[in-house]
Amino acid sequence: MNLRIFDTLSALHAASARTILQRVVAGARSIALSGGSTPKPLYALLGQSAELREVPIVWVVVDERYVPIDHPDSNAGMIEKTLFANGMAPGHRFLRFRTELNDPAATARAFEGEWRSLGLADLDLVVLGIGDDGHTASLFPGTDVLQVEDRIAAAVFVPRLNAWRVTITRPVIRAAKLRMVVATGATKRPILEQVRAGADLPVAQVTAGAGETWWLVDRDAAPEN
To answer: Is 127 exposed, middle or buried (0-12, 13-18, 19+ CB in 10 A)?
Structure first.
């Protein structure tokens, strides 16, 4: 496990932003971003980078709750308010899940169509989070979407949440050149310890591909064994 531990959240977010910028300088042009509260400061930092604005980048939403983009729980809405707080740079593109279609399966198909129209192949970089149950993106334990191998995106009903989600699929994340898993808080420590021990959790499944995986965590989330 390529583990990097930080004493403060600000140090973690600053290091994550530096890593992304370094990858962009080295040629990364497709970057997928997860939602949730943890990466908000990271995206705000990226949004302030004049260097990033000069490079053509396709930003991709990793997954989405099936809510309107102006809903407080929308991942795309959060990214727009942080990464694009100063407006989107002319050379940038934003591939999100169009929940306004009001049909999760149709939303996944539309996402895949836009993916192909943008000429995307393997992602250069994907930023991931971890749930307390070991899920990442909207790949929850026990859900059928974990078996999808032939699509870019898929809809999934999550029984424990009684809600629909849409997500990029496991093979797409595994094919990324770099996966950055950002985790904070003591509730994530048991998950990281299980992954290190070889548990077959969704986050472990998607980080087992040929590309690099970096785990950037704060002291509270760092595994003890």
So the answer is: buried
